[in-house]
Every structure is written in structure tokens, then in C-alpha cells.
Amino acid sequence: MFPKLAEDLAELPALLEETRAYAERILTGLDARPVATGPVEHPPAALPEDGTGLRGALRTFASRWEPGFSASAGPRYLGFVTGGTTPAALAGDWLTAALDQNAHGAVGSSATALEREAVSWLGALFGLDRPGAFVTGATMSNLVGLATGREWLGSLSGGSVAEDGVTTPIRVLSGTPHSSIAKAMSVLGLGRRNLVPVATLPDREAVDVAALERELAAGPAIVVANAGTVNTVDFDDLRAIAALKSRYEFWLHVDAAFGGFAAVSPDFAPLLDGWAEADSVCVDLHKWLNVPYDSAVQFTRRPDLQLRVFENVSSYLGAPADTPDFMHLTPETSRRLRALAAWFALAAYGRAGYREIVERNVFCAKEMGARLDRGSRWRLLAPVRLNVVCFTLAADATTERVKEALDAVARSGEAFLTPTVHHGTPAVRAAFSNWRTTAADVDRICTALGA
């Protein structure tokens, strides 16, 4: 055995304890750590010839790279829609690496059985009783849903896109689609130009269902309905869209990347009324479930069509069984057991724990919105519907001035927020999804914003 490997193996308990202590220092120091920092620039180092062993690697990382890492795991990182990692999810993720299971199939391990249990728990959390699988994030979850919808459209004429390729253009209809939809269409050969924008309601990001119906009259399509848009967490009328299936042929995919977690609260669950009628559903987990990157779940009504798209048959893997292994249902063949972190999180905190996190985050978002609305420096661009506050400068809201304001907040180390454009106006998004965030953090964020 290579000497450094042998030394690390001999000292493994002590090295793991040192790593644990290092991680503990990072996590307990999040409150004082700058929420965002400019990247530390280093000239590329040469590949080590012999290496320094784990202890040396830890020292090098701590001095060279860790100072440039953000506090994105902490309570005042409001950029994008970024959850943290709960203690249980962190433990599950560490054990995922320690056990190092390839969750591609059921041979020789109970890893896939655990994944099925985790999927069923998520289905119960969301009120979705259907098969599903873990994937890397919302982009891949949306891709799986669109790929299965593509196969369904091909089957209408007796064909199979999985076998024959796309022979006729396939339209994808949506009001305010996430950028990952166009990306998935590009990967799937559907073509970004076949994403048809459908009119939205006045001053809303929700689709105009009457306009959608007019588009559906032109023939079968995939409809991407939104359960929580990026800028304002607007929800399409999922019940009304689902009702159109009695008159038109279309595959209904619901992109509920973070809005799906509204289901855990009786106060917000009505926003999702009708999503149980969808053919496929995307929910991201490294957002509001607060498990480590990368993790999402996809649900489907048609696992048979999903199998047709993703099956991977070979002499050494065999054919799919009656209950197909996950390698036959997702883009990956070799698969990290990312379900374990989610399983630990759900086992540890249950439905009640996630209801509390969601409701506290929404309370924080509404508190921030109310404080900005009372002040004179900023103005809201939309009502705070769930966990995102969309706002801009009250006067002279140019791209440059908004950026300057956000840069100043980032330099203060108090918070991190990301810019956007809403209905042509340069704006800011503050997205609350971290399990640690409290009203005290809202006060610090608003103070940094001058509100």
C-alpha cells in the first residue's frame, strides 16, 4: 500500500476526529463568518507528486481555500434559493460517504430499498402517492419529467421517441418557466425554440389558463405548470390546468422546485390544489428540505414510459425486473445514495419539523417585506406570497445602482442577496429557506439594507 495511504489508515480514528472538529469550528462560527466573500485568488498549484496525507491536505485546504468559501450554510444567505444542512442531514451525508453504496440497483445492498422508503416518505409529506426517484437537482428532475412526457407524446402516434428519436416538433407550453426547462429541452433534442411562452395574468407570473387553452387547441403538447416562480413564488392555477385534460391531450409537468414545500403547512397547501393530477412533478430537496447539495426528487404517473426512456440493459447488468432498479429510471447508472441524507432528515424531524421550518421562513419573509414597505429606500415589486421577497430601490432603480447596493451588503458580511429582473425592472430577490433563520436575522439583514 502507498505509504501515505497506509499512514492514514493506521490513524483513521484520529484523522476523522480532527476532520469532525474542523467541521464543527466552521459550523459554530457561521454567525460571525462573512456571509459572502470574494473568491481567494491563487495561481494554480502543481499536482502533488507524493501527497501530504490527510492531515497535510487539511492544513493546505484550511490556509489556501477555506477562507474564500461563503457562509451559504448559514441563516442570512438569501441568494438563489439555498437551504442549509440540518444536523440529521449532515450525519446522513457523512454516512453516505462512509458507506459508499452505489444505489444503481438492489444487488448486494439494501440501499435502493432505503431510497424507496425515502421517496414514499416524501410522497406522504407532499400528498403525492406515486413512484419517484432521487436525482441531482431540479434541472435533472425537470429533465426526467420532460423526457417521460416526450415519450408519452410519441406513443400517441404509436411510436417511441426513445427508440426512433424526435421525428416531429414537440411544443412545451409554460407561463413563466424556470431556465432549467429550456436547458432540459436542449439536452433532450426538443429544441429551445419549441418552448412556447404563454401569456400570464396581469401583474402576475401565473399563467393565464384561457391563453393556455387556446394554445392546447393547436394539438398535443407538454405543459409545464409552475408551483412557485423564481422571482415572486407565484403559483399557476393547477386545478384549472388539470381540468383541461378532459378536453385536450397534454402531459402535465409541475415544476415545484421549492414551492412544493407549501404542502407541509395547512396555511399554504391550498396553493398546490390540483398538483396531484400532474403526470410528473419536480421538487428540489437541497432547498427547503435542507439536505446537502445535490439532491432532488422526481415523481411520475407513468413509470413504464420512464423505464422506456432510461433503461440500461447489458449482459452484466441484466434486464429491468418487475420493480425496476433506479438505474433504469434516471439518467445516471452509477448513483450516489443521496437518499440517505433525506431519510435521516425526515426520520429526525418528521412532518411537524418541516412545517415549523417552512412557516418560520415564510414569517421571516413577510416580516422583511413589511419592513421594506415601511421604509423609504426600497419598494416591493410583488406581494410576499411565500418565502421570497422581490423588491427594488424606491428611486432610480438602475441595474448599476441595484448592484452597488447589493455589493455593499455583501461587503458588510451581514447578508448575501442576488439580483434579478422583474417585468423589466432591475430588482433583488431575498429567498428564505434555511433552517437556522430567525426574526433576529431579518433585523440584521434589513439593517444592512438600510431599511
Please outline the helices and strands:
Layout: H1 3-10, H2 12-28, H3 53-64, H4 87-99, H5 111-126, E1 132-135, H6 138-155, H7 161-164, E2 172-174, H8 179-187, E3 195-197, H9 209-216, E4 221-226, H10 238-243, E5 250-255, E6 280-284, E7 296-300, H11 303-310, H12 339-374, E8 378-380, E9 388-393, H13 399-412, E10 418-422, E11 425-431, H14 439-449
Parallel strand pairs: 2-3, 2-4, 4-5, 5-6
Antiparallel strand pairs: 1-7, 6-7, 8-9, 9-11, 10-11
Helix pairs in contact: 4-12, 5-12, 6-8, 6-11, 12-14
Intertermini distance:
61 Å
Main-sheet strand order equals 1-7-6-5-4-2-3
Q: How many distinct helices?
A: 14
Strand content: 5-15%
CATH class of the domain at 89-345: Alpha Beta
Our Rg estimate from Cα atoms comes to 23 Å
Major sheet, described briefly?
A: 7 strands, mixed
Chain-averaged pLDDT = 97
What is the fold named in CATH at topology level of the domain at 89-345? Answer: Aspartate Aminotransferase, domain 2
CATH superfamily descriptor of the domain at 89-345? Type I PLP-dependent aspartate aminotransferase-like (Major domain)
CATH architecture of the domain at 89-345: 3-Layer(aba) Sandwich
From N to C, what is the helix and strand string? Answer: HHHHHEHHEHEHEHEEEHHEEHEEH
Low-confidence stretches: none
The tally of beta strands, per DSSP, is: 11
InterPro entries: Aromatic_deC, PyrdxlP-dep_de-COase, PyrdxlP-dep_Trfase, PyrdxlP-dep_Trfase_major, PyrdxlP-dep_Trfase_small
Protein name: Glutamate or tyrosine decarboxylase
Cofactor: pyridoxal 5'-phosphate
Family: Belongs to the group II decarboxylase family.
